[in-house]
Amino acid sequence: MSEQMSLNEAMYNCRAMRRLESREVPEADLIQLIDAANQAPSGSNTQNARWVVVRDASQKQKLADLNRKHAEPYIAPQRANPPNEKHKRLLDAVIWQMDHMHEIPALIVACFDYPEKVEGLGVYRSAGSVWPGIQNLLLAARSLGLGAAPTTLALRDQDAVREVLNLPETFAALCLIPVGYPKGKFGPVSRKPVADVMRFDRW
Ligand SMILES: Cc1cc2nc3c(=O)[nH]c(=O)nc-3n(C[C@H](O)[C@H](O)[C@H](O)COP(=O)(O)O)c2cc1C
Questions:
Q1: CB 151 near ligand 1, within 6 Å
Q2: Distance, CA 16 to ligand 1 centroid (Å)?
Q3: Which of 49, 89, 106, 146 fits 141 for a cystine, CB–CB 3.0-4.6 Å?
Q4: By residue range, what is the domain housing residue 162?
């Protein structure tokens, strides 16, 4: 809730929050999230990241339908045979999100506007100029007491997303971030020890 939350506290406690209340988020907070995202760096400072904040019920339903279309076949084999209890809990949360996405107050779609029409893998060419903004947005949400999670499954069919959001053919939709007040508690992220993921000088 507080603006006083330290950057470290936000970074180490910024879990993917999927179970969210349907209670509205103030518009000023949504704008603040995009303003934070907009402070992130981009290649050559081209600033071509674009953000669509979807609040309209029928628009949210269309995005929720796209998410279900791609999430169901992705989840099904894992659901039948979850590797462990932790992964089962993750799947339960993804399923909750799939069933309730249309009720979540804001679905934020992070895009990149290319100089020309983009297709196929070209869509991801400048993803690196959008993801820093996505992380800024997630941290800003955490500091405002809002839950959020980066997702990509709904965006697998770029033409379908462009059609729903009226995006020009130069736009790639790279991440969909459902945002709302969390139903559960925030908590620390759980990651591999730093010694497992770094070396000095050479690998
Ligand atoms: C590139 C990327 C794509 C992701 N796609 C999805 C997705 O489609 N659906 C979803 O529920 N979560 C998605 N996530 C969220 C991850 O599952 C989550 O960040 C990861 O499990 C760590 O969760 P934690 O921060 O709560 O520990 C994605 C995350 C990233 C970085």
A1: yes
A2: 7
A3: 146
A4: 7-183
Ligand 1 pocket, residue 10 CB under 6 Å:
no
Considering the entire predicted model, what is its pTM? 0.97
Buried b (16+ CB within 10 A) or exposed e, 127-165: eebbbebbebbbbbbbbbebbbbbbebbbeebebbbebb
- pLDDT of the chain, 203 residues: tens digit per residue: 455 799 999 999 999 999 999 999 999 999 999 999 999 999 999 999 999 999 999 999 999 999 999 999 999 998 889 889 999 999 999 999 999 999 999 999 999 999 999 999 999 999 999 999 999 999 999 999 999 999 999 999 999 999 999 999 999 999 999 999 999 999 999 999 999 999 999 99
Question: Do the beta carbons of residue 134 and residue 126 sit within 8 Å?
Answer: no
Pocket test for ligand 1, best of 107, 142, 152, 175 (most atoms within 8 A of CB): 152
Find out whether the beta carbon of 16 lies less than 6 Å from any atom of ligand 1: yes
